[in-house]
Structures are given as structure tokens and as C-alpha cells.
Amino acid sequence: MNVIAHRGASRLERENTVAAFRRAVALGADGVELDVRRTADETLVVHHDALLDDGRAIVETPEQELPQHVARLDAALDAASGVVVNVEIKNATGEPDFDPADTVVAAVAELLAARAEPAERWLVSSFRMETIDRLRALAPHVRTAFLTVDIDDDMLARVRRHGHAAVHPWVGNVTATSVAAAHALDLLVNTWTCNDPDRAVELAGWGVDGLVTDVPDVILAALAAARRSGATPE
Questions:
Q1: In 3D, which of 205, 207, 201 has the Cα closest to residue 223?
Q2: Which fold has domain 2-229?
């Protein structure tokens, strides 16, 4: 099971920063997860919320006026060199940067295409199906994933019909049955956000493909111990 650092090593460094991504790689995480938005001057930056701490909307703020800790997407990808990067595209209705035309998707596709790394390094996800559908239309070689709270047969069938590679359900709703159902459709299951070592071992035993966590060091140690004891497969 791949251990994916949620917004980087976000318990040890400020989340979604270059430092957090570098720390995650140093800890041995298999991948990192990050959130991407666009600024007023169409720069792709990494930030979870649509608003900065001072209340300014990122989409209404030029990149040069952002706080120093807000990383450009290309700098974040550089900081996570050598591991898989799950790029979550933020484009939710009700937020100031919502764009039904998914302008941000074209910019993400262009940036990833300009980099020298193989497409297998990227996994682009969103809670909005139309957003990852657009990414697939522009960059069909890049893997895509549907973010969701629930996981059920109808949703899995929809994700499969749309040609996406993975489903990313909330950890509290993942069961052995739902993992098996996803795998029967050739969908990967990467769950968020698990910080409980015992739950991580259980998920690994069910065959979950990836686990997003704030504490990659803790989860990596728990999984290694479980493998040594034979509790989970190698």
C-alpha cells in the first residue's frame, strides 16, 4: 500500500509548503497530495482554502502579493521529486474561484505536459467529476481520480464509465466489500485521511492501494511492523 503524505508532512511542517513536501520525501513517503488553485494572474499555486488567512481570495490576488509560504505548483512538484504526486484541483461551487469552464484544468494539463517526468508520476483528482473529465479530455495519458465521501456501486460504475483510474473515498466509509467492488472494476482505491496506525494496517489487509495521511512517518512504521509480524502481505 502506498503511503501518501496529505498536503506534505503536514504535522511536522506547514501544510502545502515546499518544506512539507521535502519532509515527506525525506520520511520515505511513496507520494504526496497537494491542492492547486489559480491566482488573479493565472499562476498555479498550492493552497487548500480559497481564501488566505487574511481573508483575501487567492483568485483575486496576484501571485507576487501572496504570502511567502504559498508555493507555486511547479516548485511544489520539484520539492516532491522522485515520488508520485496527487494533484487535487480545487473548483467547487460556492467558492470564489469556481469556474464551470474549468480554466484551471487546462493550466494544470499544460504545466504537467511541460515537465520531463513520466505521466505515471501524476494522479489528478477532484471532488467535481466534470473537472477530472476535462483533464482526461486534455491529457488522456494522465491518471485521474474521483474524490468522494461515500463509496457505493453506482458511484464506482460512474467513475469507471468516465474512464478514471481511481476512486478516493473518505476513510470512515471504506469497507473490505467496497474495496473489492472497486478492484473488480479495475479501479484503484486511495483513501483519505487516515492517521490511525491500526486502521491503516486493517486497510492494507483489505488491499487498499493508497492511504493519504498527515503522519506518513507513523503510518510507514506501523505498516513495516505489520509486515514483519505477518499481519499484512509484503
A1: 201
A2: TIM Barrel (3.20.20)
What pairs with residue 213 in β-bridges? Answer: 5
pLDDT tens-digit readout, 152-161: 999 999 999 9
**Which residue type occupies 165?**
A
pLDDT tens, position by position, 90-113: 999 999 999 999 999 999 999 999
Average pLDDT over residues 68-92: 98
Q: What percent of the chain has a predicted confidence (pLDDT) above 70? A: 99
The amino acid at residue 195 is N
- Kindly state the helix (H) or strand (E) to which residue 16 belongs, with its residue range: none
Find residue 123's DSSP bridge partners.
86, 143
Copy the grid coordinates of residue 123: 494522479
CA 123/CA 84 separation, integer angstroms: 7
> CB 101: neighbour CB atoms within 10 A?
10
Q: How far apart are the first and last CA of the chain?
A: 9
Alpha-carbon span 147 to 124, nearest angstrom? 10
- The structural domains of the chain, with segments of one domain joined by +, span 2-229
Mean pLDDT, to the nearest integer, of 174-183? 98
